[in-house]
């Protein structure tokens, strides 16, 4: 029995060392940092979906946009501004302690849920806006190939 346990421990240690050596942790600079967008976005050259912070973004030249696209961008920009306005209204309401005391727990919960929904909406709209106004590539090679193709 002791021999079995001993062998088992030895094997686990060897396996652990082996995996540690074969699959090292990626370097720190590959990890997402605070504020990095980790949602996937498709490469405009090859279509491969990649976490946004890993790729290359390039602002589209304004004259390459169609009129309908420009209109959509203007609409999105104003929507983003409206959501930001609502968020700042909420934030100032949170700071107002007299107003906070007048709210019931249920109302506070509701306000928090609204706030989170607004943040989510802001993120989604911002991503849409980014997609309209910029190209996205896996790497600089795909960026160069994309521009050579045109
Ligand atoms: Zn690509």
Write the layout of secondary structure elements.
Elements: H1 2-22, E1 40-42, E2 49-51, E3 56-59, H2 67-95, H3 97-101, H4 105-133, E4 134-137, H5 140-149
Antiparallel strand pairs: 1-2, 3-4
Can you walk me through this structure?
The protein is mainly alpha-helical. It has one domain. It has five helices and four strands, in the order αβββαααβα. The protein has a two-stranded antiparallel ribbon with strand order 1-2. A hairpin with a 6-residue loop joins β1 and β2. α2 (67-95) packs antiparallel against α4 (105-133). The protein binds zinc ion. Residues 43, 45-46, 48, 137-138, 142 line the site of zinc ion.
Question: Quick gist of this model?
Answer:
With 150 residues, the protein is mainly α.
Strand elements, count: 4
The low-pLDDT segments are none
Domain count: the total is 1
Distance between the termini: 71 Å
User: What ligands can be seen in this structure?
Assistant: zinc ion
What is the overall pLDDT average? Answer: 91
Helical proportion, percent range: 55-70%
Please give the oligomerization state of what you see.
Answer: single chain
Major pleated sheet: 2 strands, antiparallel
Determine the strand fraction and express it as a percent band: 5-15%
Q: What's the Cα radius of gyration?
A: 25 Å
Number of helices: 5
Coarse structural class:
mainly alpha
N-to-C SSE series? Answer: HEEEHHHEH
Q: What's the overall geometry?
A: flat
Strand order across the largest sheet: 1-2
């Amino acid at each position: 029995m002791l021999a079995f346990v001993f062998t088992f421990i030895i094997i686990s240690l060897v396996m652990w060392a082996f995996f540690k050596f074969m699959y090292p942790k990626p370097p720190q600079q590959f990890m997402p940092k605070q504020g990095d967008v980790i949602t996937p976005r498709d490469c405009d050259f090859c279509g491969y979906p990649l976490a946004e912070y890993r790729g290359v973004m390039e602002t589209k030249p304004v004259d390459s946009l169609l009129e309908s696209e420009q209109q959509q961008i203007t609409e999105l920009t104003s929507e983003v501004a409206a959501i930001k306005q609502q968020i700042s209204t909420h934030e100032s309401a949170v700071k107002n302690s007299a107003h906070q005391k007048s709210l019931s727990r249920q109302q506070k919960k509701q306000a928090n849920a609204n706030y989170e929904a607004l943040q989510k909406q802001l993120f989604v709209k911002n991503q849409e806006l980014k997609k309209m106004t910029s190209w996205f590539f896996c790497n600089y090679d795909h960026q160069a190939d994309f521009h050579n193709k045109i």
